[in-house]
Amino acid sequence: MNSERPEQRDAPEPADRETPEPPATGTPIGRRLLLGTLGLGALGVVAAPTLQRGLEGFLGSVSGKDPTGLTGLLPNGGGFRYYSVTASVPDRGEHDYRLTVDGLVDHPTTYTLADLRALPQTRLVHDVQCVTGWRVPKTPFEGVRLAALLDAAGVHSSAGAVRFTCFDGAYTESLTLEQARRDDVLVALRMKDKPVTHDHGGPVRLYVAPMYFYKSAKWLSGITVTRDVRPGYWEDRGYDVDAWVGRSNGRDDAPTS
């Protein structure tokens, strides 16, 4: 459609070109109406955080039962979108959560939540970038460096990669051993300075700061040291195995900060 204003070829000529038309006038805005409008605006500012938290909670609860992924298309001012590749995900908590570290290691280990909390914690603040295009700036994550768990397990010299499994029963991810040992890769227990919620992949999730968010596997339950990289769930469906922000999946996003 042409955006230019159409010509008015058949419009009649004005009767008197020198007599201007009176200026258009609107209905005056009363003082009470003006003050009421300003009051509603102030109320919106105050209520916005509460409404946003409610929307995020609603999207989280609905998306956990939405295998279509359509809830990810709903607007969410907080920035995060909720994704799950299964129709539902079981809850794990203080008494039944377990994280296993096994594979090509000297000391296979199983951690409880209390065990992980007792280890030295690292806090990182970076942008979160999804390959679908949304970004949440300056998001804090806190947890145990993955490198610390690998060192405690005693990785074999023949190892070259790490595979991650999740208690949703479907999602998997992988990193090279070199990537897994980076200082900005965490087994995260806290997000935005609160415990990681179930909807965000809690109680424990992977956080790979310099890569697109699909590498940060939710509902983490297993860390297996392997000889070679095994493509994860989305990599089997065409996503890049090396998902550095700005250098993969055909995107040109600026690196996370």
Give the helix level as a range of percent. Answer: 10-25%
Share in β-strands:
15-25%
Which term fits the overall shape? globular
Number of strands: 10
Question: Sheet with the most strands?
Answer: 5 strands, mixed
The total of helices stands at: 4
Give the topology string: H per helix, E per strand: HEEHEEHEEHEEEE
From the N-terminal CA to the C-terminal CA, the straight-line distance is 41 Å
User: Poorly predicted ranges (pLDDT <50, ≥5 residues)?
Assistant: 1-25, 40-53, 55-77
Average pLDDT value? 79
Q: Rounded to an integer, what's the Rg over CA atoms?
A: 26 Å
Structural class: alpha+beta
How are the strands ordered across the major sheet?
2-1-10-5-6
Short note summarizing the structure:
With 257 residues, the chain is of the alpha+beta class. Helices cover 19% and strands 23% of the residues.
Can you describe what's shown?
The protein contains four helices and ten strands. The longest helix is centred in the N-terminal third of the chain and has 33 residues, at 31-63. The protein has a five-stranded mixed sheet with strand order 2-1-10-5-6. Strands 3, 4, 7, 8 and 9 form a five-stranded antiparallel sheet that branches. With 257 residues, it is of the alpha+beta class. It has helices spanning 31-63, 113-117, 146-153, 177-180; strands spanning 99-103, 109-111, 122-129, 135-145, 161-166, 172-176, 185-191, 194-195, 205-208, 220-226.
Furnish the topology, listing elements before pairings:
Elements: H1 31-63, E1 99-103, E2 109-111, H2 113-117, E3 122-129, E4 135-145, H3 146-153, E5 161-166, E6 172-176, H4 177-180, E7 185-191, E8 194-195, E9 205-208, E10 220-226
Parallel strand pairs: 1-10
Antiparallel strand pairs: 1-2, 3-4, 4-7, 5-6, 5-10, 7-8, 7-9
InterPro entries: OxRdtase_Mopterin-bd_dom, OxRdtase_Mopterin-bd_sf
Biased composition (Basic and acidic residues): 1-20
Pfam family, one: Oxidored_molyb
